[in-house]
UniProtKB/TrEMBL annotation:
Signal peptide segment: 1-17
Species: Variovorax terrae
Taxonomy, superkingdom: Bacteria
Keyword Chloroplast: no
Keywords: Signal
One Pfam family cited in the UniProt record for this chain: Lipoprotein_18
Keyword ATP-binding set for record: no
Protein name: Outer membrane protein assembly factor BamC
Length: 361
């Protein structure tokens, strides 16, 4: 269901590869190679033609249970557990709650990503964040006669035209346990519209895949001692409806959530990871994430809103903002503050609020 990107079948295979392969036996990631500098922003320009492992972007810095139990779709969060591992779900977001300290989990989680074919470009235990490099799911390549006979010799001719990277965030809980979040970011290689001969391609962001996040959470559960059968039962469950909407309060754009603080904090943090914000620090006691942002309107030469939204550039210095989560009862508000903590009402604030709301829906 994919293509030979270098053999001129990119367009056909991209259409065929629209669905994500969630079979546990059909995920086989191949690392892009040597980890790039963490300060290099994503390069969404044309892919180098001499290697299938050319990286489409640089890394982003950033400071028990009853198996098979039905999930009530009317509840805000569904949670099931085996031993000291529990999975929770809110909307299309899932995370693990493990009754072990973050220090105990760091090594096994690092080993987990390496065992699944990834290199780590970010490994900061003091911040509780690790991030993989861009990698290709080689299991998506066609296993036909030609591939099986000459593919091993000319393997560089074969590419899925997609790359994925994953960020893992570990949050300590008051009880001494740890919440583990895995967020996905994807890129896809497409033909440039200005070239009618379809000889040039460009890497562009593709939507976050919640089911791919869920599959890696399931695999991590197995790494932490849950059986394959139990992990599949834990991850399975109906979708849980969650509400997020953009509103204006005191002339300031905000996101309104029908969630209490704990749930809103978790979901906003995962959304920031998913959508590529550069999270430098966070203060849960104050409900604040400290992020970096680049105005996409400052560089007109490179098209695409998401191409420039959260990347950094030597010619476009990033601006610093705070994402503030405030709650009262079962309702929460997410607002954008400037670097000094004052309410932000600029066009940038409106863009950031919209991106957060779109992912939280």
């Amino acid at each position: 269901m994919n293509h030979f990107a270098r053999a001129g079948l990119l367009g056909l295979s991209m259409a065929l590869a629209a669905c994500t392969i969630m079979d546990g036996d059909k995920i086989d990631y191949k690392s892009a190679g040597k980890a790039p500098s963490l300060e290099i922003p994503p390069d969404l320009s044309q892919l180098s033609r001499d290697t299938r492992y050319a990286i489409p972007g640089g890394a982003v810095t950033a400071t028990s249970m009853q198996v098979g139990r039905a999930v009530d779709p009317s509840t805000a969060t569904a949670a099931t557990a085996i031993g000291d591992v529990r999975i929770e779900r809110d909307g299309n977001q899932r995370w693990l709650v493990v009754n072990r300290s973050a220090d105990q989990l760091w090594g096994p989680v690092r080993d987990f990503w390496q065992e699944n074919g990834f290199l780590l470009t970010l490994d900061q235990q003091n911040l509780g964040i690790m991030e993989t490099d861009w990698a290709e799911n080689r299991a998506k390549l066609p296993q036909d006669f030609i591939r099986n006979t000459i593919g091993k010799v000319f393997d560089s001719l074969y590419s899925t035209g997609e790359r994925d990277k994953f960020r893992t965030r570990l949050e300590r809980t008051p009880s001494g346990g740890t919440e583990v979040y895995i967020s996905h970011r994807g890129m896809v290689e497409v033909y440039t519209s200005e070239n009618s001969q379809k000889t040039d391609t460009r890497w562009q962001p593709r939507p976050t895949d919640p089911e791919l996040e869920a599959e890696f959470l399931r695999r991590l559960m197995v790494k932490l001692g849950v059986s394959q059968e139990q992990s599949k039962a834990l991850v399975a469950g109906g979708a849980v409806k969650a509400s997020a909407r953009v509103a204006t309060l005191n002339n300031q754009p905000v996101v309104q959530l029908d969630e209490d603080f704990d749930r809103a904090w978790r979901r906003v943090g995962l959304t920031l990871d998913r959508t590529g914000f550069t999270v430098e620090d966070r203060d849960r006691s104050q409900g604040t994430y400290f992020v970096r942002y680049v105005d996409p309107t400052t560089d007109k030469k490179e098209p695409g809103f998401f191409s420039k939204l959260f990347s950094s550039s030597p010619t476009t210095p990033p601006l610093k903002y705070r994402i503030k989560v405030q709650s009262q009862g079962n309702a929460s508000t997410v607002a954008v503050l400037n670097a000094t903590g004052a309410p932000e009402t600029s066009a940038n604030a409106q863009r950031i609020v919209q991106v957060i709301a779109d992912d939280l829906k």
